[in-house]
Amino acid sequence: MVTFVRYRQPDQVGVPLGIPPRLESWDSKTSPSQIALGRYLDHVETLTRPRMLALSDAPLALRLFVGFDASVDVLSRGRDLDNYLFPIVRRLGASRFVSVWAAKGVAESVIEIERAVPAPVSSDDRWRFASAVTNASSQTAAWKDQVSQQIAAQTQEVVCEGGVELEICFRVSPKRNWSTLWKPAIDSLECVLGQDNPARPYHPRDDRIIQLGLHRMDDSGVGHDVHIGIWWRPATPRTRTPEAPTRTPRAM
User: Fold this and answer.
1) Are residues 28 and 82 in contact, defined by beta-carbon separation less than 8 angstroms?
2) C-alpha distances in angstroms, 31 versus 27, 36, 77?
3) Which has more pLDDT, 77 or 235?
4) pTM of the predicted structure, to 2 decimals
C-alpha cells in the first residue's frame, strides 16, 4: 500500500501582509492584473526573505491566511485558495516547500513560514481518505480522468453544503515541479466538492474549501507517475469562518 505524509500546519501568528492577497492571473504579461500581481509578489518576497534565509537548510511549510471583511461570502465567487497560494510559491521556489497551507475567513491577512514538521495521525473520524495513481501528462484531460475516476470509486457522496477542509499529498519524483499539480488535482474532485454545471466537467465547487493543505513526498522510484492521497471533511463551526490568532505577530 502506498503511504502518504501530512505535515503540521504552521501555528505561529505570522506576519500581517498589509495589503490584500492576490489571485493568480492568466492574463498577458503586460496586463494590469499581471503588473499588480508582480508588485504584490515583490512585497511578499521582501516580507518573507528574512525567514527564508534563516531556514535555508530546512524543508519548509508555509501558511497563508486570506482575510476578508464580514460582508464577504468566502464560499463563493471563485476565491479558490490554491490560486492564492500558487503565485507565492512560484515566486519563492516550489522546491523549498514540502507543505503549504491556506485558509480564508473574517480576519487580517497574514503569512507564516516555518520548518516543516510531520503531523501525527489524526484521531478525527470525520476525515475521509482516497487515493489515486496517474501516469498521463498532468496537462491533459486524461490525467484528470484518472484522478476523478479513482477517487469517485472510493467516495460515497459529495460533502454536505458549507465549508470543506481538504488536504492533498503528492508523492512525486524530486525532479517534478509539484505546484503545477495542485490545480488539476483539485479540478478533478467534483465527486467530493460537487459541481454547479454538469455540462462543464472539471469545474468543482472548490471555492467551498476554507482550509487547504498541500504536501509533497519525494520518491525517485515513481518516475513520471504521480501518487495522490486526499483527505477531506466538512468544516466545523469553529473553522467555517477562521479567525487569525490574536497573539502579537513576530517578525519574519
Assistant:
1) no
2) 6, 9, 22
3) 235
4) 0.92
